What does this fold into?
Amino acid sequence: MIIKIFVSIFVIFALSRVYLRFKDRAINLLGFVLWNLLWIGIGFVVWLPKVSDILANNVGISRGVDALVYLSIVALFYGMFRIYIKLEFIEREISSLVRGLALKEKKDKMKDSDLHE
Amino acid sequence: MKIFIIIPALNEAKTIGRVVGELKKYNYEVVVIDDGSSDNTSQQAELAGAVVLIHLVNRGQGAALKTGIIYALQHGADILVTFDADGQHNAADVPKLLKPLLEHKAEATLGSRFLHGSPTGMPFLRKLILKIAVVFTRLVSGLDVTDTHNGLRAFSRRAIEKIKINQDQMAHASEILDEIHKHKIKFIEVPITINYSDYSIAKGQSSFDFAKILFRYIMGRLMR
It folds into this structure.
């Protein structure tokens, strides 16, 4: 019972954060809806675990909690992959910046020495 | 004929002066890319007569090579040679790489330390990993080469203009081979000698690094 209350409090907290981020426009409407669905879904499963069992049975998993764990792992891996890709692009952008600076500095230096000659 | 030698260097103040000096004897244009060194690599290179481009922060050998290639192309290079800064390559091998290009027998020449048997002084584990890399390259890139991770290569301007390097780190070596295969660039392997000194072995890739290189290479291919 205590765990249900804890989770519920956390869900309410998380929902408030989602709302605040939406108000700051840090996330868009789609993000707002998806995050809300996720947290409400979690609250739902905590209070009505039987419902999740029925849903899980439909896809061939006996317990709703197990289905939730599987889904979370998939989501986490996907998230990591997204972050990896994003990081790689940022790295490449930094490289082209550093490259641009290196070439520009050389060019400026050569111009300077041409002027002095 | 403008021949550019491109040398990516990271903390090579001890060797870079000698390396550049040797190459300068042949009247090549030498470009050193100081990839965020914390020692005086760039001063030493400049003193020895190289053009020095400075990466403000370290971006990896692939990124440094790309900077050098762009510079050389902007300055009218006809032939580009990539060369290591740690003293493991010999300036005397460069003319051997240039010959097939000048005679229009190939668009690219790749230095190989295995073409005439194994070099002396090479640690066993290094040899094993390089052999695995050769088999791997044959399977993935479909390219039949004897030495996949040799930093001594030469390209005609036409060839290098086709080659796109996206890998900032060490995996660029495999990427270059992929590009050669993809664009059907005619290449020849040329036997070269590598000086395995304690210094170059310590500065080289550790055997563990190869796992990292492999991972980045596979991710890079997935992202294309």
In short: Chain A has a mean pLDDT of 88. The CA atoms of residues 8 and 51 of chain A lie 17 Å apart. The first helix of chain A runs from residue 2 to 23. Chain A touches chain B at residues 84-85, 88, 91-92, 94-95, 98-99, 101-103, 105-106 (CB under 8 Å).
